[in-house]
Design goal:
Keywords: Aminotransferase, Pyridoxal phosphate, Transferase. GO terms for molecular function: identical protein binding; pyridoxal phosphate binding; transaminase activity. It comes from Fibrisoma montanum. This protein is 41% helix and 15% strand. The protein has 14 helices and 15 strands. It has a seven-stranded mixed sheet with strand order 4-10-9-8-7-5-6, with helices on both faces. Helix 6 links the parallel strand 5 and strand 6.
Length: 439
Amino acid sequence: MTSQELLQRRNAVVPKAMVMSAPLDAAYAQGATFVSHDGREFIDFSGGIGVLNAGHCPEPVVRAISEQAGKLMHTFFNLLTHEPYVLLAEKLVEILPHGEATKVMMVNSGAEAVENAIKIARQATGRQGIICYTGGFHGRTMMGMTLTSKVSYKLGCGPFAPEVYRIPFPDYYHNGRGLDVDEFVEQELADFRKYLSSVVAPENVAAVILEPVQGEGGFYVTPRRYLQGLRQLCDEYGILLILDEVQSGFGRTGRWAAYEHYGVVPDISTWAKSMGSGIPIACVMGKAEVMDKAKPGTIGGTYAGNPVACAGALATIEYMQQIDINRLGEEVGKTVYAFFKDLQRDCSAIGDVRGLGAMVGLELVKNGDPNQPDPVLTSRLVGACAQRGLFLISAGVYGNVIRVLSPLVISDELLHKGLGILREELLRLYREQSVLAGV
């Protein structure tokens, strides 16, 4: 079977809404590369959209999944306890404590984690309102879509969940002109406080949900002082702070959690993606006194905390500890960030380079203007790199951000080879674009 044949079969049976960023396929994969049915090898800078921090098919994880499948494949955990769930919960509490006592519930996806985090927050506070941010992405379930900012993910899907309030993300690149970062942050925090007087009363707000680093939104990093100030505001008004670490967790920023860079501990947090190396598993974590306020029967699910998924996630985390995934995230991030900053000096189409650890992106704009996104150049770059054997993905509300989510186990040789391809293709496309524009 060829790649083209597989894609034709896909088109015949899969809805058109399941879009492809590039007409590519994968037959098998290892580490930081995958191979198509045509036998073409690709450097993977997508990591399954942040799922493969520990690489494709890490051997200890494959072995753990196989062994568990031969012993116990399913119980409904609410009815029948199994040890892999408890072991995984204990490991998560060990590496990601939320204060003095932490509790964990397993689910199947990041969107499910967000749904349950909202349910827990509302029950814990007796309030209904949820504050979220522009550019945020929190999934495609009904509450997830309501919280998600990008309108193209929501077309024709409403009406959406009530009592959700969206405020501007503290985006210094686009909105901080004329101010230093500290001045900008103080202004944003003051605006948040005003919002609680003019839009929704704090007594009605159960929680604020925020990605420390926006993923799908374009790799915008929450300013350190802003998140610290937000923590203080939440404490002042009895509002719970939910941090969505679905894409930023498990070594991606050089720490188990992005929030560790801020000296802030959330009341509730959501996790998925690289937690299981591709096995469908996620979780909600939180301070025990918050988690225990959920009423019996309101959280859980048939497959939530499946034994095979739990075994795969536990093996993933133990493997990450063995290879020191946080050190790898820090090192990969330094390499990519420095490379992009150097490339920015040679290509004025790059308006901004930003990131935290190995969660690094570059934003492509026209005429050096942050308010003139260039999704066309971005799309052409993704396609050109695919032709050269580098799989890139874009992000951002306008689709003009290139994000790097390569497996953190990628070798220096492969990482520099991929970055070299990206550089060559971007400069070529930019020169062509400039010629056509008569610049």
